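S1.2 Input.
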Amino acid sequence: MGSRTSRPGTSRGTPDTAAEPWWRKHGRLLYLGVGIPVIGAVLTALALNGLGLGGESEPAAPAATGSPSASPPSAPFTVSARQDGDDGGCTALEDRISSPRDRAEIVTGGDVAGVVRRHRGARAGELATELTIEGGTQPLTITSIDIEPEQPRPAPPFAGTLLCEASAGGEPKIQLYADLDSTRPVFLTGKGSADRYFDEHVVTLAPGEQVNLSATFVAVKGSREFRLVVRYVRNGKEGAVSVPAPSGSRYAVTGYAAEYGAVYSGSPNGGFRLEDGSRPCRWSPAAPC
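S1.3 Output.
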């Protein structure tokens, strides 16, 4: 009477000296070993998503010729290029279109741009490109825009298939002109001129200022693919920024061939009509017709 009975290991102030079962100890270690990496992975994923760097891939941008390009955001200025086919003109492919699917796309006016991309087509005669340069946070000077051909010399003109659209009329204002038939093409002050544009001119950009340039690349004798690089000086230091080609296209131009495997002309319904002849008489100023 009056005495209290305490259970072993539970009396107040007395530590529990009983050995912990092995399965409980190892189970706790297993939980900690798995839980810490999982928690770390979750926190890392949340941080990346917050920064816009999550692992989920972005949907691919639609590939459409004429969509403007853009320079990387880390560049000291932005430069973009746009190729507009609304002024008509022709596009040449190296091979004759033989796939029924590709022929159907051309005749019906479907994904003609896709056919041109798959066959690595090039604008025939001349390629007109609009360049837009916008200054960044500091003033700088554009000292040149260099043309860097992929091949040391022009290849023969593309002679497989010719696709020609009707012209919308009007003569574009030409600010820069380049002959891609030359071994080292550079920008000149105009067609037929021998004066190098950037020997006498520079482009000075104030912060946020925008400058628009029209560049025409011409080929008569051969075909050429090339790159564009803008060189500049900022705070006394030289630098260079590549100009990406418009989405779904490339910088390439070819002279007209004497004749083609097939010639298509744009029709009023938006598709193309197969011409009877194989010579580009209506489009090439030098066609032997």
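S1.4 Remarks. Confidence is low (pLDDT under 50) at residues 1-18, 25-65.
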